Amino acid sequence: VSFLCCFSQQPDIKKIKIDIAYLSSDELQGRATGSPEELKAARYIATRFAKLNLQPKGKDNDYIYPFTFTKPAKFHDTTGGTPCSGVNVAGFLDNNAESTIIIGAHFDHLGLGNDANSLDPTAKGLVHNGADDNASGTAGVLALAEYYSTNKKKEKFNFLFICFSGEELGLIGSKKFCDQPTINLSRVNYMINMDMIGRLNNSTKKLIIYGVGTAKEWVPLIDQLHGYFSIKKDSSGIGPSDQTSFYLKNIPVLHFFTGQHSDYHKPGDDYSKINFEGEKQILQYIIRLIEKTDKFPKLEFQETKNSSPEIRNFKVTMGVMPDYTYEGKGMRIDGIIGGRPAAKAGLERGDIVIKMGERNITNLNDYMQALYIFDKGQTIQLIVVRNKTELKLNLTF
Fold it and tell me: Are the C-beta atoms of 298 and 189 separated by less than 8 Å?
């Protein structure tokens, strides 16, 4: 039985297929941040928003939201620190409501695998099409934009539909938007993020939903609506996708994800492997969940603990979310994970780490390199800048 038997409109699976096919085609060369092909993808999304008569919510009365940043170095790669640009794409559905729901996904991917983030060491120079990661989520944004723009129900919320660039380089696009938003974030009810929703397993029907602890209403609602899926809930608002940027602005979030697979960050993440019916079921579920929030006032944000470290493959973790867009001296902290070394040491959001032990930290790459040299259980002295004042703090990994 369809979740949406009572509605005349449903997400259009034919258009979902068309969108994913185009976005993950060789023509777009893997949609690397700042590439001409990524801009072509952005214009495709903007054209769709325009046809739905969404209000432009980029910059200069356009759907396109351009930004610049310094590309961070990745792990032992020394090519970071180079100027780069990207574009978000944003369209607004004004229902004259008091609050707004943000529905988002990133549309960038790895391009030709040249940024040291391909997980296939032999694939440098090969097109990484990113059908699941994240043409699937982008197609989901487009499908929901069409649903809410054309359905007959009088919605109780406004909607901002937004597709982000720079996610693969450290949530850059969503961070830039949250720092300079084109809508009033204080009137945002919650944010829904879709990242890799195209590989639902038909046997297990496992759907992972992150951020369920960011508002008290989420868990009861999700438990009521599980229906078709076997749902795994994770409370944390901080994770390796764009919902994190909104969580750090004290906005309730949910992140939908169908799980890891062997093609993740490899050239094999192709259109032919997408479960289109599974994606449609997820979009129907999201519509039902949004409908259930009609009866609640604006959701109250709750802070959560994080269940996973912010950076993989290092010997130790501080338990912070770095500000990947920061271009000054040091590593600025954008979020603190409760119960981890940084929180126990008294660090705060906005602190700028300039020294770890005897190692000077002049940029994000220095910080990443430092995480290789310290050991679990080791205590070091940190020097941080807080409100223009240097502080010395002891931190135990």
Answer: yes
CA separation for the pair 26, 37 (Å, rounded): 10
Residue 58: closest CA among 44, 42, 71 = 42
pLDDT of residue 338: 82
What would the two tokens of residue 139 be? 């197609």
pLDDT at 322: 84
By CB atoms closer than 10 A (0-12, 13-18, 19+), residue 186 is: exposed
pLDDT averaged over every residue in the chain: 90
Distance (Å, whole) CA 194 – CA 192: 7
Q: Which of 17, 35, 15 is nearest to 271 (CA)?
A: 17
Q: What is the Cα–Cα distance from 153 to 389, expressed in whole angstroms?
A: 54
Burial class (CB within 10 angstroms; exposed 0-12, middle 13-18, buried 19+) of 82: exposed
Return d(Cα 237, Cα 318) in angstroms, integer.
17
Phi, psi of 280 (to 5 degrees): -60, -40
What residues contact 147, with CB distance under 8 A and at least 6 apart? Answer: 9, 10, 11, 283, 287
What are the C-alpha distances in Å from 327 to residues 72, 118, 125, 352?
Answer: 10, 25, 29, 11
What's the distance, CA 34 to chain centroid? 17
Query: From its phi and psi, is residue 377 left (phi > 0), alpha (psi between -120 and 50) or beta?
Result: left
CA distance 111 to 129: 7
Point out the residues of the chain with pLDDT beneath 70.
1-9, 72-81, 306-314, 325
